[in-house]
Design goal:
Helices cover about 30% and strands about 15% of the residues. A four-stranded parallel beta sheet has the order 3-4-5-6, covered by helices on one side. A two-stranded antiparallel sheet has the order 1-2. Helix 2 crosses helix 3.
């Protein structure tokens, strides 16, 4: 798998990442064993970037990625998670410092980490 630098971070990541929304089970049941098989296959293929969000399966995809990270600490994973989709409605007033802290703390707990690799703000820009 080829890699490239992530922005100006100095971090080398795979040029192919795995989107993990399907692992949350929002579009049909995915058992833990199948989800972990997908994740391990991606790592074996050289994928180091995993794209998730706190709302995928109400945090289930983050929990699975946390489990993968514990099982494969040598994988060199970069996890890109999203926050903001929990805000309802998606209006600017919902995006407060406290909401950001709550979303980040929940993602850190789900992933079992102290620091998140990459957080993306996901909002419905049509109302912003």
């Amino acid at each position: 798998m080829r890699t490239r630098e992530l922005g100006r971070t100095g971090c080398q990541v795979s040029i192919v990442g795995l989107g993990c929304c399907q692992l949350g089970g929002d579009w049909g049941r995915v058992d833990d064993s199948d989800a972990m098989d997908v994740l391990h296959a991606a790592v074996e293929a050289g994928v180091t970037v995993l794209d998730i969000a706190d709302v995928y399966g109400d945090g289930r995809s983050e929990l699975l990625i946390g489990r993968l990270s514990a099982e494969r600490p040598d994988a060199g994973l970069t996890v890109a998670t999203k926050m903001g989709r929990r805000a309802s409605p998606h209006v600017p007033e919902a995006f407060t410092l406290q909401a950001f802290r709550n979303w980040i703390d929940r993602s850190r707990a789900n992933l079992g980490v102290e620091v998140l690799d990459l957080v993306q703000l996901s909002a419905d820009i049509s109302v912003l």
